[in-house]
Amino acid sequence: MGLVVQKYGGSSVATAEHIRAVAGRVSRARESGLDLVVTVSAMGKTTDRLLRLAGEVSRDPSPREIDQLLATGEEQSVALLAMALHDRGIPAASLTGPQAGMTVAGRYGSGVITEVRPERIQKLIDGDHVVIVAGFQGMNSLGDVMTLGRGGSDTTAVAISAALGADRCEIYTDVDGIYTADPRIVPEARRIPIISPSEMAEMAWRGAKVMHPRAVELGALYGVEIHVKGSFSEGPGTVITGGDDLERLETRETVAGIVHDLDVARVTLNGIRTGPGTLSRVFAPLAERGISVDVIVESGLKDGKADVAFTVRRGDFAEAREVAEEIAVSLGGKAEGEEKLGKVSVVGTGMLNRPGYAAKMFDTLGEAGIPIRMVSTSEIQVTCVVRAEEVEEAVRRLHGSFELEERDV
Amino acid sequence: MGLVVQKYGGSSVATAEHIRAVAGRVSRARESGLDLVVTVSAMGKTTDRLLRLAGEVSRDPSPREIDQLLATGEEQSVALLAMALHDRGIPAASLTGPQAGMTVAGRYGSGVITEVRPERIQKLIDGDHVVIVAGFQGMNSLGDVMTLGRGGSDTTAVAISAALGADRCEIYTDVDGIYTADPRIVPEARRIPIISPSEMAEMAWRGAKVMHPRAVELGALYGVEIHVKGSFSEGPGTVITGGDDLERLETRETVAGIVHDLDVARVTLNGIRTGPGTLSRVFAPLAERGISVDVIVESGLKDGKADVAFTVRRGDFAEAREVAEEIAVSLGGKAEGEEKLGKVSVVGTGMLNRPGYAAKMFDTLGEAGIPIRMVSTSEIQVTCVVRAEEVEEAVRRLHGSFELEERDV
C-alpha cells in the first residue's frame, strides 16, 4: 500500500459541487489501494472576502488577527471535504493545521513550517481514515494559529509528504501541468512532462503561478516527488523530480520554459554618491518595511556617482519610491520610478553549460523592437524587464526562437 | 476597577459596520474604567450559510465535522472585532474557545462547558487587553473543537463571568430587555426591569428567545448578575438577579410575563395498554434519537388502556410520529399527531404561593373561545398548548387579564 498526499487549491473547492468532485477524485485514488492525506485551500475567493472584511473594520489590521481570521477559510474547506467523503461511505477526518501537528515560526502572515508532528495524522491513517488537513496554517510557540502566506497550502502538502515519507505529493490545480509558456499567451505551448526542482523553483519565483516556489524547494530538500496535475482532467501532468530521471533531463533539455510576471515596478536612485555600504544603506530600510526587492542593477561609477535601480511588486511601489527618494536626496541624488513593467524569463538547467542563451534572448527581443530595461541572470535563468504592454509579445517571440513548440514531448 | 463580560449576538455583528459599532460600545465601557472580556457569536446568517453548504456536500454530515465547520463562524467574528478595537487604539486580542481555555464535554453540536481555565484570559486582562472570546465553542478531551449548540454564546459569556468572578455579565441583543410579552404582538407590553433567574429560565425555556435558558441557569448557579440590554440602544435593560433584590421582587411581582412558542407539534398514542414501564418504553426511543419531548399528558385508564400525548419541535415531528406509531402498534393502539400548534405560558414566582392563576388562565382562554389542547404546570408557570393560529390572540388576552400593562414599572 502506497501513501499519497494530495493538495487541492481554492478553485478546486470553490463550490459545494467542486468539493463533491474532489471527493470523487479522492475516492478513486483510495479504491486503487492508496492511503491518502489531502490538504486543501480555502474555497474560491474566501480569503479575499475575509481580507476585504478586515479592511472594512480596520485601517491597519493586526497580523495576528488577520491570521486568526484567514485560518478559518481552510478550516471550512477541510470540514466540508470530510463530510463529502463520509457521504461516499469513506472514513475521513478533518484536522486544522494545529490539530495536524504543523508547527510554525516566523511572522504572522508568512510563517515557516519548522516541524511536522505527524502522530495524529499517522494514527488516523492507521485507523483507515482519509485525513484532510487545512493547508496554509500551523501553530506557533504561543499556541496561536499562524498562516504561511499565500500559496502556503503547497508547502503544507510537501511538508506532510516529507514527514510521512509519502510515495509522492500530488498538487491539483486548475491547469493540467507546467507548460513551456502560459498557454493563454502562446497557444503552441507544450506541457513539460518532467522538470527538475531547481528549474521549477526558478519558474515559480519568476512568475509561473502553478506552484509555490518555497514548496518546490522544500520538496527538493527532502526528496519528495511532486506531481502537478489538473483538478478537472485526467492527464499525467508534470513530474518534478531530482531523482533518477534528472540526468536524462539534463542532457535532453536546454531551456525548460518561458515565464513572465506582470506585477513589476522599477525604482531608480539617480546620481547618488557611492562607497562602501551604500547598497546596504539603500536596501536595509526597504527590508525593514517588508518590501521584497527583486532585480537590482547598479550602473558603473561616473564622477564618483552611480545609478542604482531595482524592481518591486506594484503594491509596494509607492512606499518603495518614497523610501528611495529620502535616501537618494541624502546621497546627493534623486529618485524616479516606473510602475507598469513586466519581467520575461528564460529558464533551464541546460543553460548552465552553454553560453549564448542570454545573447539569443537579447537578439530576439531586439529584433522584435522591444527595449530591455533591466537584465538579471543566474545559472539557470535570464530575466529581462520590459514594458508591461510588451510582455506578451516578448513571451511569444522567445517561445518561438527557443523552439519550444518543436520539442519532442 | 470592575470586570465586565459582554456578549454580542449574531445580529449585533452582522456586518463590518455593526462590528465597528460594537467596538464603539466596548470602547465606551473601557473608557469608564472597566476591564472587559467580550464574547461574540458568528456574523448574522453565517451559521445558516455554513449548514446549507454542509447539506450540499453531504446528506448526513458527521457531527464532528459540523462542529469543525461551524466553529469558524465565531472565529471570524472575534478576529474582526479585535481588529476594529485596534483601529480605535485599544489593545485587544481574540481567542478561539480552545485558546480561551473553554473545556467542553458531551456530544458534538451540544457540548456542555465542564471547566473554564481562565489563565490566558486573565493574563491578557492583566496586560491591559480587551479579550475577545469566540462564543459557542470549546475544546473536548480529544483536543477537538466542539460547539455548545445554538444559543451557546450566552453560556460562554456566563461561564467566563463565573470563572473570572466578573462584576456582571451583559448580554447585548436586538431587543432592549425582557418584556412582559412579545411587543410585536402586544404593543402595551412593558420592559421588566428586574427578574429572578428561575423566572427568566422558565421564560426562556417556554419561548422567550432573548436569552438561552442554560445560560440563565448557569448564572443562577454561580451567582452571576446578568444584564440583558439592547445592542443599538442605551436603556437600562433587564437585570436577572437572585441577589438582594429578590425578596422585593417576590413580594411585588405576581406574574412576570406571558411567553409563547410557535415551534410545537403534538403526537398522541391512542388506546395503548399501560403498565409499569410503559412511559419509558414510549420515551426512551425518542431520547435515543435526540428528540426533545416537552409537555407530556397521560389520560386516565379506561378498560386497561390509556392515551399518551406529548409535544415535540416541528422539525422532529415526522420522526417522532414514526417512532410513536411503531410503539403504539406494539401496545395495541395507534398513533396520530397534529403539527401546527403553539404554546402559551404564564410565568412568575408569585404564582408559587397563590393558587388560582391556572384557573384564571383557563377562564381567559375559554372566554376568548380558544380551545386548550394540553396543559402543563409547574411551581412558577402554567402552559397551555393551543392551535398555532390562536397563539397571538391568547397572548394578548392573557396580557390583559393579568394586568401586565397596568403594573407600576
Q: Which stretches of chain A are poorly predicted, pLDDT < 50 over at least 5 residues?
A: none
Which oligomeric form is depicted? homodimer
Radius of gyration of chain A: 23 Å
Order of helices and strands of chain A: EHEHHEEEHEEEHEEHHEEHEHEEHEHEEH
CATH topology heading of the domain at 3-250 in chain A: Carbamate kinase
The CATH architecture designation of the domain at 3-250 in chain A is 3-Layer(aba) Sandwich
Largest sheet of chain A: 8 strands, mixed
Number of H/I helices of chain A: 12
Write down the overall geometry of chain A. globular
Strand order within the widest sheet of chain A? 3-6-2-1-9-11-12-10
- Span between termini of chain A: 31 Å
Class derived from helix and strand content of chain A: alpha/beta
Output mean pLDDT of chain A. 89
Please name the fourth-level CATH homologous superfamily of the domain at 3-250 in chain A: Acetylglutamate kinase-like
- Care to count the β-strands of chain A? 18
In terms of DSSP E residues, the strand content of chain A is: 25-35%
As a percent range, the share of helical residues of chain A equals: 25-40%
Under the CATH scheme, which class of the domain at 3-250 in chain A? Answer: Alpha Beta
Largest two-chain interface? A-B, 40 and 39 residues
Give a description of the structure.
The structure is a homodimer of 409-residue chains. With 409 residues, chain A is an alpha/beta fold. The first copy, chain A, has a domain at 3-250: Carbamate kinase (3-Layer(aba) Sandwich), CATH 3.40.1160.10. Chain A has twelve helices and 18 strands. Chain A has helices at residues 16-31, 46-57, 63-86, 119-126, 152-164, 197-205, 213-222, 246-252, 278-288, 317-330, 357-367, 391-401; strands at residues 3-8, 35-40, 92-95, 102-107, 110-116, 130-134, 137-139, 145-147, 168-173, 194-195, 226-230, 238-240, 257-273, 296-298, 305-312, 334-347, 374-378, 381-387. Chain A has an eight-stranded mixed sheet, sandwiched between helices. In chain A, strands 14-15-13-16-18-17 form a six-stranded antiparallel sheet. A two-stranded antiparallel ribbon of chain A has the order 4-5. In chain A, strand 14 and strand 15 form a beta hairpin. The longest helix of chain A has 24 residues, at 63-86. Chain A is globular, with a radius of gyration of 23 Å. Chains A and B meet through helix 1, helix 2 and helix 3 of A and helix 1, helix 2 and helix 3 of B.
